[in-house]
Structures are given as C-alpha cells and as structure tokens.
Design brief:
Length: 179
Amino acid sequence: MYNYVKYDHGWLGNWIFNATLKGAAFLAKHMWLYWVLQFTWGILYNIIGGLITLFCLIFGGKASSYHGHYVVMFGNNWGGLEVGCGAIVANNMGDAWTTHTKNHESGHNFQNAIWGPIAIFMMNIPSAVRYWYQEINSRRGHGEKNKPYDSAFFEDSASVTGEYLYGTLKGKDIKELLK
C-alpha cells in the first residue's frame, strides 16, 4: 500500500522533516520521554484531542491500542485524524489502508511530542485544510489533479515516521530516508 517517494520540500521543509524523523527515532527508544513531552509540551493538542476522542466514543467509536498509541475506529470511508497521543481512523477502508493510516497518524503523534503547540499551526491545521481541499476538489470533479498526499512536508514526515517505526520502512537505515 505505502510507496515511499523521496520528496524535496525546500530547505526548511527538509530540515523540519529530518528533525522530526530523527526526533521520533530517538523518542521511540525512550518512550518515557515521549510521554513526558506529550503531556507537557504537547498538552494543548492532547486536551483538544481528548475532547474529540470522547465525542467519537460517545457516538459509537471503538477504542484499541496500536504500538502504545490509542486508536478509535469511527465512521466510514473518510480517513484519519491525529489527536495528540492517539488517532481517530475510519472503518471499512481495507486492511492495508487502515494499517498505513494508523502508521501515518502515529507519525503525527510524534510530531506533536516533538513540536508541541507549534505543531498545531505548522502541521495539524495545514494538514486538515489540505485534506479537505483535496477531498472537495476531487468530489466536485474539477479538472485539476490533486498533488500526491505526501508531497507536503508535514504529511511526508508523518508517513515516513510512522512507516519507519511501525511499517514498511521498519529496519531501513534512517540515513536513506533523510532529505
């Protein structure tokens, strides 16, 4: 399902990508520090995410654990949403898609721990706006083709981080993945 492509995001996007991937690799080996960062530096989005998660659970979401992160399966055929140290992921999208989405959202979880409140403005909001822009654009059938999902540094960073830690890129030399 996931096909790694090495995008060039410009010097700043590449720097943020590399810092995120290196930071996530470090935090994955020191999960105690990951949790300290999530509930200090990243607490704002965890509070917002906790409220979103509670809403989804009240309205039928099913919670489970995925590599130490929580995942709530909710709704059908829409995608995924990182909510601090967890994720909300759609049902009925197929096993390969669901696994990649869980890995991708786990990558966003590490972004929250690394970048804290900056991640809300640098990654979370742009990610949501971009997702819905592309979704609406494709539903309306406009002639312009959407750019590849991971061509934006914040999405590429989430996918590569999640796949490096838990999926198809696990075991690869991190130097091969850096920009």
